[in-house]
User: Fold this.
Amino acid sequence: MHPIGIIAEYQPFHNGHAYQIAKIRKQIPDAAVIAVMSGGITQRGETSILDKHTRAELAVRGGCDLVLELPFLFSCRSAQDFARGGVRLLTSLGCVEYLAFGAETADITRLTSIVERLTSPAGETTLRQALETGLSYAAARTEVIRNIPGSAELLRQPNAILAVEYLRALNEYAPEIRPLLIKRRGAGYLDTSIDTPLASASAIRNALLNRESEPDWTSISRAVPEATLLTLKNAYPARIAHPERLYRPFQTALLAKSRTELRDIYGVAEGIENRIETAAFASTSRQTFLRNAATRHYPQSRLARTLIYILLNLTTKTVRTADNEGPLYIRPLAFNTRGRELLHTIRQTATLPIITRPAKHLPDRESGNPLEELTPLRQQLAFDRKAHTLAELTRPTPSHRDDFQQSPLFIR
Assistant:
């Protein structure tokens, strides 16, 4: 058995994900696939279209053996922090041999040359100087690599961006884990066309969310495995989350905060709180707000995450603590028979505790303990719970079941 890690969102699980897993098993026949997956809130600051246990079950039915949750304090972050959190969790398992990831190129030397440039002393100096001029991180990174032929064009592709960050994180935190690059096929990450068997997750979500009438199930059926299709049909519309439902609560949260309190929120800096407040009350929807508030240093994806941070009152102090500690627990969401065998191995090799019933590790809400007084492990769990609850509130019919009482799903 060769444990292979994947860091994913499965938002939702589609044919492209199944293709990636099939390619992994073709290259490494005895692969045991471990997916580290975001929970209720995704990397781009959106609520997960299906709840995390449902997404984990679909991932196992689609080829994964074991699905673990990436704590919210790492999953709803920039590409760099998302990659670092996932890699640090995988290396804590003590048995992972490869990290598999997709990109718009099959040439890993192109990606490693970019990483070498970004992490060199000269590259770090150039990056810092570019950021000091007010450029966004993405634009500053382009300045660093502009002399590598084709690199700027490549890093306009979302999967290549993540691939570079995975390689950087492996170098820093897990040199014992080898990269396994799978060339991406089909539609681009942000492609909104649903009429292809390898449509993107964005296209599938748009087909579900951006229609006043019944979704085009025929087109969706060509893009997802049968299990995903049946689950989406059963969930629609009562259990399908829509990020626009975050907007009124966001405006309300802003009314309750002073400018000083806003400046304590992670990601709020350089006077952006003024722009956020102005745009929030001049905009009628989340999407309009993101367009109106965006700047070159604060692109829409960053603002979408900041909106979540404001709603959950996530402070810079809490994030810095999490970054210093890294993920502090292993939470299985779903597994099959091979995944159960993996968990037995992980219990012997892991450097972190395996938590299957998080409620045992977290005080009741009624305890009144401020988050700042919790241990770092309990802080991470507390924000997982808050993120899950927030995501549930964006579904027409929220679940009243406590996520922290939910045991992992065994998929036979």
In short: Strands lie at 2-8, 31-38, 66-70, 98-103, 178-183, 332-335, 409-410.
